[in-house]
Specification:
single chain, alpha/beta, TIM Barrel, 8-stranded parallel beta sheet, two-stranded antiparallel ribbon, 10 helices, globular, binds NADP nicotinamide-adenine-dinucleotide phosphate
Length: 279
């Protein structure tokens, strides 16, 4: 266990606390070989948490991930997500089995409710716990749930929830006001999705200049900042070997106080409560 590793409530360590996202991957046959090589290079570099979803490319991302991890399943901490309309007792088992089939595995390490829909949270908890008992998933969590939803989940016996995957990066700091403190006080880590704002952060002029002054790529600086926050697991998506190598390098970066202060000036922390943002 490293000082930066993040523990899930059930005690399992996510090490290192930096994963690989896969949204928009697996959809373009001409990019497939490079995407698979990228995910495998990420595994070589220790980025063993891979995040996907049944929604991504209508299953194409899961299929591509399945191919990338073939023969390496034991190295991987595999996360997938279910559509809200599938998060019922009647539909979740089949949705999960379909994901497992596409991924070429017999179990998920973490299965998330992608966002909240019409199925009562308590029913999703029951369905998730059953999948866990049946060995289809090792654990479960949620995504895009705001503080009041998390309160409701707790009240619905959702104490088995291992994470909440939310939009979090320098330009989206609203979660720092109450959601992250709420989760932290209960030992629930956050998976930070779109950690480089889908690439948009990289062209922010002053941010890019700061990164250059530190001899870091903007992506590496954005990830290093997130990695300093306790209980946060960024999951950047990289579509090339060069990008995943750049991202993995963020694990070795330590920011100084001056840089942190400057980043707070460029991207101020929240001063009041705002609704959770989603992409
Ligand atoms: N739960 C949810 O609702 C939800 C929502 C959104 C995302 N997610 C998850 O979070 C993951 C990450 O979020 P995201 O894909 O939206 O955005 P992101 O990771 O913030 O950004 C991805 C973009 O950044 C580029 N990039 C990555 N590394 C780079 C580097 N080192 N240098 C330059 N550019 C780089 C990528 O380009 P290349 O492709 O060219 O490398 C891509 O265009 C997703 O893939 C998905 O798994 C979850």
């Amino acid at each position: 266990m490293n000082e930066r590793d993040v523990r899930l409530p059930d005690g399992e360590a996510i090490t290192p606390p930096l994963g690989q996202g896969t949204w928009m991957m697996g959809e373009d046959p001409s990019r497939r070989a490079e995407e698979i090589a990228t995910l495998r290079r990420g595994l070589d570099l220790g980025l063993t948490l891979i995040d996907t979803a049944e929604m991504y490319g209508d299953g194409a991302s899961e299929e591509m991930v399945g191919e990338a991890i073939r023969g390496r399943r034991e190295e991987v901490f595999l996360v997938s997500k279910a559509y809200p309309q599938n998060a019922s007792e009647a539909r979740l088992p089949d949705a999960c089995r379909r994901s497992l089939r596409r991924l070429g595995t017999d179990r998920l390490d973490l299965y998330l409710l992608h966002w909240r829909g019409n199925v009562p949270l308590g029913e999703t908890v029951v369905a998730m716990e059953r999948l866990k008992r049946d060995g289809l998933i090792r654990n479960w969590g949620v995504s895009n749930l705001d503080t009041d939803d998390m309160e409701e989940l707790s009240a619905a016996d959702g104490f088995g929830c291992q994470t909440n995957q939310v939009l979090y990066n320098l330009t989206r700091r609203g979660v720092e006001w109450n959601l992250l403190p709420w989760m932290s006080s209960r030992g629930i880590p956050a998976m930070a999705y779109s950690p480089i704002e889908q690439g948009r952060l990289l062209s922010h002029p002053e941010f890019a200049l700061l990164a250059e002054g530190l001899s870091l790529s903007p992506a590496r600086l954005a990830l290093a900042w997130l990695l300093e926050r306790p209980g946060v697991i960024p999951i950047p998506k990289a579509g090339s070997v060069a990008h995943v190598e750049d991202n993995a390098g963020a694990l070795d970066v330590r920011l100084d106080e001056e840089t942190r202060t400057f980043l707070d000036k460029l991207f101020p922390p929240p001063t009041h409560r705002t609704p959770l943002e989603m992409i």
